[in-house]
Amino acid sequence: MRQRSLIAITAALAAGALTLTACGSRDSGDKGSDSGGTTVVIGVDAPLTGDLSALGLGIKNSVDLAAKTANKKNYVDGVKFEIKALDDQAQPSSGQQNASTLVADKDVLGVVGPLNSSVAESMQKVFDDAKLVQISPANTGPALTQGANWQTKKERQYKSYFRTATTDAIQGPFAAQYVFNDAKKKKVFVIDDKKTYGAGLASTFTAEFKKIGGQVVGTDHIDPDTKDFSAVATKVKNSGADVVYYGGEYPQAGPLSKQIKASGAKIPVVGGDGIYDPTFIKLAGANSAGDLATSVGAPVETLASAKQFVADYKAGGYKEEYAAYGGYSYDAAWAIIEGVKKAVEDNDGKLPDDARAKVTAAVQNVSFDGVTGKVSFDEFGDATNKQLTVYAVENGAWKAVKSGTFTG
Amino acid sequence: MNELPQQLVNGLLLGSMYGLVAIGYTMVYGIVQLINFAHGEIFMIGGFGALTVYLYVLPDGTSMWVALPLMLVGAVIAAVLVAVGAERFAYRPLRTAPRLAPLITAIGLSLALQQAVWAWYPGAKESINFPEIAGGPFEIGSVTIQTGDVFLIVAAPISMAILAYFVMKTRTGRGMQATAQDPDTAKLMGINTDRIIVVAFALGAAFAAVGAVAYGLKYGQVQFRMGFILGLKAFTAAVLGGIGNIYGAMIGGLVLGLAETMATAYIADIPGFDQLGGQSWANVWAFVLLILVLLFRPQGLLGERVADRA
What we know:
The structure holds 2 protein chains of 2 kinds. Helices cover 42% and strands 19% of the residues of chain A. By secondary structure, chain A is of the alpha/beta class. Chain A has 2 domains: 38-166 and 301-377, Rossmann fold (3-Layer(aba) Sandwich), CATH 3.40.50; 169-296 and 389-404, Rossmann fold. Residues 17-35 of chain A have low confidence and may be disordered. Chain B has a domain at 17-227. Chain B: This is ABC transporter permease. Chain B: Its main location: membrane. Chain B: Pfam families: BPD_transp_2 (PF02653).
């Protein structure tokens, strides 16, 4: 019988090991020497390794670029900006640890990140208790700013939390209208990954799609840890759907799209900003042509305001692309820089003692022309810029199809 | 349209892959009573071995018909080398230690191998595309079979047949059976048990490597974490089929694959179960099945062929 009890112990250990997969290295930004004046650190929290690192590294590099630009221009007199980037591996538990680490570093006066809404949930309170401003370039979950009952009763959650990205409350319906009115697809199969972001997006999409007359012919929830979606793909094929909406991110969306097409259902997969990444196309393969994604804001490349950013980013010699959230990350970092500038100027050119609270208050009122357009925040901490764009896969790359906003 | 035939094929394909990996768990367990948790990573190393051959050894644009056998060789070599190395340096020194010690070593080795590939294989910090076999899917009646799956359909039964022949008919295979029954007596009969154990690790790794090539062809990508969940599933399949029994591993894999696929496809249609269906619940149902099987047949579907020695 000992062997059987050994198997039981082993199974328990295996379950424990499942939670250990989140281990890994984290790299922090170098701390340069203090060459006179004050050093202000902008924290960055994003997945710098793992499946979502393409997006996370774009965020980190863009914040780095903002800090360097401010230093070069000597934008805030006597203040030198540095970044401190921590890796959250898209795990809420790592995110919370990173939040505590950043709070403990008294030079940190603002944080850009995270990428994932579920990670943000674990960080918000830590930052709010420390009155440390946090600006996410990518979180789209409406509940983060407007509370769990955002559909009926909006309520600001944390005074220290802001975002430069548009929420799913707008993104999902925007996608639904495009799919129904422009792409002329009437029967949808909705799939999500049960995470804060994916499930939220899928539900706002579903609600609007039904409202305007579309039909939901099936739903499924996938397990983000597996790569075998063949059973789901077969269900999609037999449901008679003419389009699939996926709430989730590209590491699953790519293989999912590939397997749906492989099953014989030649129908487009539509997703949110979480699938708007070149890696999606790489994973989904040649049959991904025609797949659609919505993403926040107008395409960075087309904005006059973004030309400088794109040029500077190239000149900066970063190894990775700025990816989907580069412009938003730059603007988020710049909002913090503006906040610091205000706090310093109000205090006769020195950092005030309660710098974190002062910066947070200043960020609420910032208004400047950023990479992605006018940057300012409403009473909930959401971006006032509510632009969205539909992208389609064409010749192996994302191509902007339509920009606009959802007006209800 | 009736989707049952397609779902059965989906389940059998997934199950064949579980089975190929489960053989490694079951053989090593049958002979040294070690649950080799690093086996999932041996599988992963096999995938990267095949990829290395394709990306760095063969010239660009080599036809898959030429490349595939060489990739398979590369996968097997990489997986076997790592498995034999692990046996020699991580498990053999602990052979007389209490059984939990090599188990913990195996878990540590699993994490170490994952992180090593993550850190040192170029581009492995994200999923890497695996080459695909050109050619459209094959339609047989209402069933669609992907080109990449053909490899699995062919390789899994052939591998099983080779394994059965090896274990039953060859001298080394019979030595393995003897060692599984009683290592001390086997040694007295002149069997080099150290060698037999190495052979068990190597064979298990070779089958995992075949499974890894099938994984790459099927999903079009490999990544450093691909072995972890799949390894757990394969271990489950080995227990389901009766750990220690090589046929049980394959049967357990097929049953597990079918159970997951059927749960994804049909549980949600049962009235009152719509919240409990779908792919995210498939694992739950697979484990419900495992518990049921173990309740009524604690030794697994095909029983334990090894003597209970504790």
